[in-house]
Design a protein that fits this description.
The chain is built from one helix and no strands. By secondary structure, the protein is mostly helical. The longest helix has 36 residues.
Length: 55
Amino acid sequence: MDQNGDFVTAVRMIVTAVVSAVVTASLVIAVGQSVLDHAPVASGASQPALIRASG
């Protein structure tokens, strides 16, 4: 391949990677929101719990 063809291939791969990342992030956000929307609200959820870790 010539240099112009290599450049076009590289640009196409970069665009494909960016589009794939955006689609994946959108799906993760959509599924996460769906799970959070269906999760029951715990009583006292307005105040965060303080958890002390031993060690």
